[in-house]
Write a structure and sequence with these properties.
alpha/beta, Cobalt-precorrin-4 Transmethylase, domain 1, Methyltransferase, Cobalt-precorrin-4 Transmethylase, Domain 2, five-stranded parallel beta sheet
Length: about 425
């Protein structure tokens, strides 16, 4: 028996020696309520933070600047931000550190501080200098599949995609594509993107994304994909549409397959038409992949059908980013006030007071039911029910914030019960 034990010991030794520095111990971290430090506020951090937040981590970002998408997370209270350079003391109390900067010297300073404090550290710039790696991940409901690798990231992604295909999430790497695909990402739940949209996203060489796209989709991009953050936070910083058009055309003419990922549907107040025209004028082929629009999805997930037999035979979707009476507004508010069906207002929280006042002045009864649905289809969804005459004050008192959909009409009282949020 001793001889057999010796043989086993030798075998184990040989395995350990052959694995060497490439050996890793797979582990799932329970980060809920635990502090995670993210150093850096650029594209890499934008892709990593959503998964940390989904895991329930208390995310603290240290960076002189943030992308608009990360600023949106901070403004929503989901992450905290120190607008400065890293200091070693920032690691104190952290359970995990993510280094998301491309300055090797600065990154080394962070990992050294983490090593001294015995805190695991992920290095986006140098996996060999890291004490933890982020695997290639795919999710299907409560199932999470993580694939680690010994430096062959493409291989890990390929394995992940094969598993994803088996779970009916998405097929393996898609065939080659050309030009630009305008893909609707849906209202917020990453699983509400279409199968075709997810397949094209997996094949992209360049991804140009807005703030309202589900962050977890960005975390699944291949590491070599160029990510362009074209985030547009309401009434805040915004990338000029002309610059976005230029990037789409320029990258496509370089022979790269570009996916323009947009929240909701590309052609519902998403400027997808402008981008399609710009590409067509430059001779770039355009593929449009419709998405689930929040104008229908958000009310539905709050238990409100925008049409209902005997209640509403029509619904109208209108942009509220300009108030009634604005010289650039194309909305006929008087005509909308006369309609008996459902009125859905997108991007209208800032001007909600003027909108409701105008509708009432034009004849819509002030007691008309109204509801505001914030961040529909996500785990942060909340609904506020009121009336046309009182909803503005109710919003101010409750702290409801964009992105939100306002629904006005008798369908609000239908109140389908026990509707399960798609993000669950």
């Amino acid at each position: 028996m001793s001889g057999r034990v010796g043989d086993v010991s030798e075998s184990v030794g040989e395995v350990s020696e052959s694995v060497g520095e490439a050996g890793v111990y797979p582990l799932g971290l329970k980060l809920a309520g635990r502090r995670v430090l993210v150093v850096g506020g650029g594209a890499v951090a934008t892709r990593r933070v959503p998964a940390l937040l989904t895991a329930g981590a208390v995310v603290e970002i240290v960076s002189p600047e943030l992308t608009p998408a990360l600023r949106g997370q901070v403004d929503a209270g989901r992450a905290s931000w120190s607008a400065r350079r890293f200091e070693p003391a920032d690691v104190d109390g952290a359970w995990l550190v993510h280094v998301a900067i491309d300055d090797p010297a600065a990154a080394a300073q962070v990992s050294t501080a983490a090593e001294e404090r015995r805190v695991f550290c992920v290095r986006a710039d140098d996996r060999d200098a890291a004490t933890a790696w982020t695997p290639a991940v795919t999710r299907h409901g409560q199932v999470t599949v993580a694939v680690t690798d010994g430096g062959d990231r493409r291989r890990a992604m390929a394995v992940r995609d094969l598993v994803a295909h088996a779970l009916e999430i998405s097929p393996p790497a898609a065939p080659e594509h050309q030009g630009v695909a305008l893909v609707g990402a849906g209202p917020g739940d990453p699983e509400l993107i279409t199968v075709k949209g997810r397949r094209l996203l997996a094949a992209a060489d360049v991804v140009v994304a807005d703030r309202l796209v589900p962050g977890l989709l960005l975390g699944e991009l291949r590491p070599e994909v160029e990510f362009v953050d074209a985030a547009k936070i309401p009434y805040g910083p915004a990338a000029a549409q002309g610059e976005i058009n230029r990037i789409l055309v320029e990258r496509a003419l370089e022979g790269k397959f570009v996916v323009r990922l947009k929240g909701g549907d590309p052609f519902v107040f998403g400027r997808g038409g402008e981008e399609a025209i710009a590409c067509a004028e430059a001779g770039v082929p355009v593929l449009v992949v419709p998405g689930v629009t929040s104008s229908i999805a958000a009310p539905a997930l709050a238990g409100i059908p925008v049409t209902h037999r005997g209640v509403a035979h029509e619904f109208t979707v209108v942009s509220g980013h300009l108030p009634p009476g604005h010289p650039d507004s194309l909305v006929d508010w008087a005509a909308l006030a006369r309609l008996r069906g459902t009125l859905v207002v997108l991007m209208g929280l800032k001007n909600l007071g003027k909108i409701t006042e105008r509708l009432i002045a034009e004849g819509r009864p002030s007691e008309t039911p109204a509801v505001v649905v914030q961040e529909g289809s996500t785990s942060h969804q909340r609904s506020l029910r009121s009336t046309l005459g009182e909803v503005t004050a109710a919003v101010a008192e409750s702290g409801v914030r964009p992105p939100a959909v306002v629904v006005i009409g008798d369908v609000v009282t239908v109140g389908v019960q026990n509707v399960v949020n798609a993000a669950v």
